[in-house]
Amino acid sequence: MLMIATAQPTHLWADSGELAADDNQLLLLEVVLDRASLSDALPALLVGDDIVLIPVGALTRLLDLDVQVSPADGRLTGQVGQARQSIFLDIALGEARAGTARIILKPGDALQESGDIYLTVSLMERLLPVRMTLDVSELKLNLEAREKLPVQMRAERMAQGEGIAHSGAVLEPVLSVAAPAGMLSFPAFDVTMDLGSDTRGQPFQRRFDVRASAALLNAGFQGYLASDDRGKPALARLLLERREPKGGLLGPLRATSASLGDTFLPALALGPRSVAARGFAFSTRPLEQASIFERVDIRGELARGHDVQIYVNDILSGAQSTAVEGRYEFDDVPLVRGLNVIRIVDYGPNGSRTETTRVISVGSGQAAPGELIIDFGIGEQGKTLVGFEGTQEPSVGAGRLVGTLNVLYGFSERWTGVVGLARYSPTQDAARFLLSAGVRGSVFGLAVQGDAARDSLSGSAAAVGIAGKPFGIASTIRRAEFRNGFIDEAAPHGGDGRALRSGTEATFDFGLKTGNRSIIPVALRIGQDAYVDGQSAVYGTLSMSLPIARALVSASWDYNRVTGPGAQNRLTGNVSASFNPGYEWQVRGGFDYDVQPSLQARSFNLAVDRSVGEGSSLRLAAGQSFVTTWDTTAEAGLSVRLPIADLTFSADYSRPRGDWSVGIQLSFSLAPNPLSGRYAVRRSGAASGGNLAFESFFDSNGNGRRDPGELPVSGLRLKGGTREEITDANGRALVTGLGYGPSARVTIGLDDVDLPYVAVPPQIVEFAPVRGKVAVLAYPFKPVGEALVHIVLRQPTGKLVGLSSVRAALVGKDGMRKEAVSEFDGSIYFESLPPGAYDLQLDPDQAGRLGMAMAAPVSVIIPEAGGMAQDANATVIFEGTRH
Q: Cis link prior to 656 (omega < 30° from 0)?
């Protein structure tokens, strides 16, 4: 039944950028798509007289859209549509993004509630691929899809007889679970094993990768062990890491992040770059913040056989198909001033596609007045805690002690001072000590930077930079001068150990408006480096992305002109596209070509993944090289998603050389289950993200714990991990692979369970995941009862007549109170009453005004196991009628 009710005070985005309290009304809307009702109780909010806000989390769950909502943070991220356009919103920052379109939130656009984020219809239409028509008088929200939605694909499959049920909306509040890292937990493991044969290498190959994660000393432990092609251990990494957004680490330092083990050391504006080392590092700067004059390094775990792409504000910025020490690494990623939405798309050999979204706020690099920011790291460069002889490639500076210290202090609102110290090894010669100083500031709305540095070999450097957004173009220009052999590893092309004389770089990011009102994002990077050896290089990159026929198409051109020794002049281009037709196919392709020194095609590739039923997927791929030997490659693979593992068969053939390879890969996880005290075998993902051990039961005594004799609840469906889990005969389930985002969510399905006379807990569970940690949740169903009470008036003839519109309440011994109003026949139906005895009381205001009282006390008793109480009659009398 549709209804309007008074809602609790909420928080609305106000002009000041702060949250203001307001009293709103709850509207329960019917949601209609394709003339079919998806829900008849979507809880929208009416703010004031005419602003209606829609819950984005509830609506996107109805539409099966890939959107993650964190109400506590006031933030949502996701990828929508068959082109997988990224969307992002942050209430605190007052900003949203749809692809590359930046949206500034207006007062009243967004509202933050404990269980969801509410948006206006106009803002929702800009973020989601739907048109919305709201009829407040009919309490109806009509949706029109701008392209086919996952929920429509699901309905079509149902019509074809595949028997896929729709779960409907989950409108219950969110159950938040505390899941701290803890002092110690049993580790979770992700294991990948490969067997194969390859005419290009070993005739018989056997490899393994093992990743381990656990809670240790209130931090997160990560371990990695990999073999060579002969199955012998060749690489290991160990890391203890903790992040605290509020800055509660390392005592008075109030660090926001700290790491010990195989970590990365911070870079300076001039001199040392960020390098891998076995050592220690920490920072006190806010997480996910950077300076416009810095480039960031994006790193993460990359499993064998997977490849990743990185999108910065929906522009394809790079790709990697071969793991380096088990990781992907995108160095020197340029960002724009303001919010940057970075998507890491991971494609697995079994047809899987997972995305990780990071949001980095880029400013002028200033500290607040009186604020002290410290970045520190020290360690042995290029070495890991556990090494295997002869397996690590020699590198410049490997084995040397290196360290960096960067200190920023805010002198005023406009100016911040910077001091840096470092010991680094950019060449095979002796290590260098470095001292640097600089300023960060803001002048006339422009961000400015100045730095100077000197090393222990008399080398010196100076750099200035300016950034702003003239004419709507986000622009950054930086110029650096070097003397006496100073080596700047942090320069865009300074990592090869050669000494520079000067370096200039400029970046420009803007959007091109098209005739159909869409915007094509464009990123331009140009620069020039002059080296001491007489060589000079001019380089440039132009990138853009746009949706075409519901595919995301990216194009880029790279220019490199070198004069002096090794002279060359080269311009190359690339076009790539990704498409997700019907949400069952996954199509990717790319074309590389040369423009200079001559126009020619270089290579073409195409990969198609197709789900086959619910438990397997097929991959077909082809590639063609147009240079040298004109190689043609064909690849085929079949993946089977087993309940406890992924099994992938693959083969490829290349002509004219006749090379071929065949292989089989098995991937699975070992996850500790605190409820059973044993390890469980699951599909891969338990070590790379959070996990949840779940126990459901009938809580007969209402204490929230499962006591001896309390019965389990089996058959609950838990969705959110690598597969759907169902509670077993003991009421238990283990959900793995919940990712490593700001929050993880699990949805509880009750459709297959008969639960009469119980209070159902919230059906959405949310917690902050810790890699490898298994959070434990007790999910009690408490018995409740119902009572039917008749309010009657005895007429002079002795006949009892029902009395309507009487306000009354049942009050328990513990003070619990349930209020209701009698119907036309005098009946009042009370629901969700915990077991116990209740006294019936009339509303004192109404009773006093009407001179109404009860002729005798009335009580009802709800049985201990719940259920219906015995019906009760309450006779009322009015003043002057008592006999």
A: yes
AA letter at 817: R
Summary count for the chain: helices (H), strands (E):
4, 66
The beta strands (E) that lie in 704-823 are given as 717-719, 725-726, 732-735, 744-749, 758-759, 764-767, 774-783, 785-794, 800-802, 807-812, 817-821
452: pLDDT strictly greater than 50: yes
pLDDT tops 80 at residue 831: yes
Spell out a b/e string for 68-94, using b for 16 or more CB atoms within 10 Å of the CB, else e: bbbbeebbbbbbbbbbbbbbbbbbebb
Neighbouring C-alpha atoms within 13 Å toward the C-beta of 683: 19
CA atoms within 13 A on the CB side of 134: 18
**In this predicted structure, what is the pLDDT of residue 833?**
86
- Tokens at residue 324, please? 């380096």
pLDDT for the residue 357: 78
Q: What is the mean pLDDT of the chain?
A: 83
Tell whether pTM > 0.90.
Answer: no
CA-based nearest residue to 113, from 157, 160, 69: 69
Cβ contact 275:402 at 8 Å: yes
How many Å apart are CA 563 and CA 536, to the nearest integer?
A: 5
Helices (H), 25-170: 56-62, 121-127, 150-159
Question: How far apart are alpha carbons 671 and 738 in whole angstroms?
Answer: 12
Can you tell me the distance from the alpha carbon of 555 to that of 803, in angstroms, rounded to the nearest whole number?
A: 75
Euclidean distance between CA atoms 100 and 15, whole angstroms: 25
pLDDT at 484: 92
How many C-alpha atoms does 339 have within 13 Å on its Cβ side? 25
DSSP 336: -
The C-alpha atoms of residue 481 and residue 464 are separated, in whole angstroms, by 9
- Residue 109: both structure tokens together: 């656009």
Q: Check pLDDT > 60 for residue 163.
A: no
User: In this model, does residue 3 exceed pLDDT 50?
Assistant: no
Which residue type occupies 801?
V
pLDDT (average), residues 400-419: 93
Dihedral through CA 214, CA 215, CA 221, CA 222, nearest 10?
30
Q: Are 311 and 343 in contact (CB under 8 A)?
A: yes
Q: Other CB atoms closer than 10 Å to residue 512's CB: what's the count?
A: 11
Termini Cα distance of the chain: 43
Q: Distance of CA 808 to CAs 369, 676, 789, 833, 867, Å?
A: 59, 48, 10, 15, 21
The closest alpha carbon to 84, from 265, 309, 300, belongs to 309
Question: Where do we find the tokens 């002279």?
Answer: 567
CA dihedral over 861, 863, 866, 867, signed as positive or negative: negative
User: Are the CB atoms for 432 and 457 separated by under 8 Å?
Assistant: yes
Give the Cβ contact number of residue 803 at 10 Å: 18
The burial class, CB within 10 Å (0-12 / 13-18 / 19+), for 689 is buried
> pLDDT grade, residue 648 (50/70/90)?
very high
Query: What's the rounded Cα separation, in Å, for the pair 686 and 680?
Result: 10
* CA proximity to 180, closest of 239, 240, 238, 244: 244
Chain centre distance of CA 824 = 52
